[in-house]
Amino acid sequence: xxxxxxxxxxxxxxxxxxxxxxxxxxxxxxxxxxxxxxxxxxxxxxxxxxxxxxxxxxxxxxxxxxxxxxxxxxxxxxxxxxxxxxxxxxxxxxxxxxxxxxxxxxxxxxxxxxxxxxxxxxxxxxxxxxxxxxxxxxxxxxxxxxxxxxxxxxxxxxxxxxxxxxxxxxxxxxxxxxxxxxxxxxxxxxxxxxxxxxxxxxxxxxxxxxxxxxxxxxxxxxxxxxxxxxxxxxxxxxxxxxxxxxxxxxxxxxxxxxxxxxxxxxxxxxxxxxxxxxxxxxxxxxxxxxxxxxxxxxxxxxxxxxxxxxxxxxxxxxxxxxxxxx
Length: 326
Known about the structure:
Strand order of the largest sheet: 2-1-3-4-5-11
Oligomer: single chain
């Protein structure tokens, strides 16, 4: 008499995991440790789970998740979402966007949209990513990184290195970094690239030249305060690399309001090449945001293994850094 095939619920109970985790292990999906996956697979073999039951469901609806602090209509994320939508439209896939905010359980916010797969875009706290990864849905990250998950990012470190190297070569002596929260993966990598370029040039990083936007402040308010602090230093900077274009444009206005000539007295550079950067003549790093969105969808559809795919960025030199100091 053949042994009865156990259910996935029974397998999950035997392994001490949720049904979603057991399903991901059997499908070799991301979001769980190798130890957990191996335990589930071993028990499945020992207990006679019929893996023929597993069917890879087609992805018909992808839910893009953004943190509530990142509006979907911001210049960077709007362009990224356009790329994601275009890639979904190619295969007739419905794309939804949801901003995860406080006050409601994350699981409910996600599952009520009935997605087949998930793409997390931009900053999320590690505990949120942990919850999302345990929902049993194919998952990828864009403009974000977390261990054990597939991700695609601009080459943030190299971009920051290139612009800092350029400013050094142009003769700038005191290059400041105007930073957002370092809990953000992209900002942390940009700071690292800035510091590495200084180190490779034999320059010591001056802590007074690293200005951080205060937590809880929006970019317009926080970047303006941080820039004024830099200008108030006994030896103010002769160049500022801001972590993104929005902060750089605020810094540019503060410098002009203070009567400084840009770029003669101070050079300003940003990162991302948003639409307003060209009109302002802002030197920046170009990120193909639509390509980033398309690549994120590809990771979801291919259920790619863990790892960080880097997309190249390019330095665009414009009027805010074009001339060199005397």
